[in-house]
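User: Run a structure prediction on this.
Assistant: Running it now.
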Amino acid sequence: MKRPLILAATVLALAGCSDQWQTFNTREAGADLDAGYFGNATMNNNLAQTGASSYAINLNNRFSTEVSPTVTFAFNSAVLDDQARAVLRQQATWIKQFPEVRFRVYGHTDLVGSAAYNRQLGLRRAEAVVLYLTSQGISRDRLEAVVSFGETQPLIVTEGRERRNRRTVTEVSGFVDSHPNVLNGRYAEVIFRDYVTSAEAPPTLQGGGGGGTIADAMGGG
């Protein structure tokens, strides 16, 4: 009684294998090997060499650590108050140290009002920040884009008037393509500029006759 059952199971298995083989045999060569990651190594190398990958991320982390990337606004307003202007002056000072870098300003609102109105309000806030940064000597060409998220990305989820949601955020967006440092691939030197500069020249002794280096003052053969 078991043999017919075994035979039937064998036939079904062979039929399944036949279907699988037919499916495999009609696919493109190498399709079974490509899990969706083919070419990622080349892509990541290209991103690093063009300054679009981890270098920009690292520089943005430094920017947001050393200065505040955010300013906030009064309800239903795109006017910069004294505190916002003070923060933007700090941003401008930092930005001037890195002429190779481009920035993007994102505008946000709270959840009061319609989505369409808030999208326009967020845009006006971002434009106000860009205008102020240009007044501080930042080239408009380096402020890559002005983007409004409106009410879609609140920091505090509430239907009420939450000032922390009424904000703009300035972020590093990439590198200036025509800058010679970028063309030479010197991204790490840009990011760690302060450290590179501090290591370039040895300290000198103040006062004394010849004004030589510390090594000269210590003498030796």
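The first strand starts at residue 70 and ends at 72.
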